[in-house]
Amino acid sequence: MSSTVSTSRGILPPATAGVSGPFLHSESQFSESDETELLTVSWNQDYGCFAAGTSRGFRIYNCDPFKETFRRDLKSGGFGIVEMLFRCNILALVGGKANNQYPPNKVIIWDDHQSRCIGEFSFRSEVRAVKLRRDRVVIVLEHKIYIYNFMDLKLLHQIETLANPRGLCCLSHNLNTSVMACPGLRRGQVRIEHFGLNMTKLINAHDTQIACITLTMDGLLLATASTKGTLIRIFNTMDGTRLQEVRRGVDKADIYSIALSPNVQWLAVSSDRGTVHIFSLKVRVGEDPSSHSSATQSPALYYQNSSTSLDTLISPNTGANPGSSLSFMKGVLPKYFSSEWSFAQFHLPEHTQFIAAFGSQNNVIIVGMDGSNIAFFYPVSASEIPRYLHYTWTYVAEFREFESSIWFQG
């Protein structure tokens, strides 16, 4: 597998700004009667915004308050991948299959402040995903992952993976930790790359193929689900230790997303069963390296202080997840009876893909991929979970809002 990279005078470090700052609204080139198909939705790195790739182009939305901040429509077709870099003017774009200008095997690094392409990657096969850090561009193909330096687009690493049609890959986003998680070369295996420490860790997470993965912002914790979709597991990425296991259900399900709250107290899981499950986590993270008083402390020392002992990652609180009334017989009965279940869940329209995330205030944010239901929000309280909550459900196509209620079971 080979790749071709071209640049336009190199790439300057992206200037961070509010989405409404560098992004200027563009006028639509289409009539209102033209139908717009939603192709993809993806969060930015802090889950404060999301990008929607459509058959016309792409749109950027702010989460709280919810509003469309920018759109760009193109006559040549839409984008199957739109990846933001926090809230700056740089985006990674991959054309949809119907795009006659940008094919699905090409990645465009787009500077919307200058309205021009500043970098381009071409491959022999279709691009499955693109992930961005302030210092890295990661491009995922079905059997290989390429890691480039953001400054000059030079290739730094190539990683072989098991067949990865979902484009599974995730990055840490703290400045002092550089961690990547992706499928390994064996079924159910996750490969962890600690680039700052020049260390690779292989975690045998499941018996069946990996369906979904996510990392905490510092990359110290990994959450995984398999194609079976019944169990979600939390691992220490430094030594591969399994820290917690929770059960979504008994029947097989296709896991669409796993989200960890900023304080790593909550876990949200969405699936094709039309439910989003909320779990309480027993793990906790160490001190944020970006806020450490010593600016000269190395990532290796931070890892050593926060991850070499399980005591620093396991909270003494056992959490609020319910278990079976027969869990006291876990040494005799099958493992199912000792499982931790979600303490709350809510129901969504079935057969629609929803991806969940947590906002800065531990609000749950859900985006629907059916083209009409785009996002709604509600708070998760650490002290009390009310059985009825209200949320705002916004229709992207018609820009209408209405209030509804949601039912918690737990």
Automatic annotation (TrEMBL):
InterPro entries attached to this UniProt entry: PROPPIN (IPR048720), WD40/YVTN_repeat-like_dom_sf (IPR015943), WD40_repeat_dom_sf (IPR036322), WD40_rpt (IPR001680)
Topology in membrane: Peripheral membrane protein
The entry's keywords: Repeat, WD repeat
Broad class of where this protein is predominantly found: membrane
Entry GO terms, CC: phagophore assembly site membrane
Keyword hit for Repeat: yes
Region (Disordered): 1-20
Compartments where found: Preautophagosomal structure membrane
Gene3D superfamilies: YVTN repeat-like/Quinoprotein amine dehydrogenase
Stored Pfam families: PROPPIN
Family membership noted in the UniProt record: Belongs to the WD repeat PROPPIN family.
Protein's UniProt name: Autophagy-related protein 18c
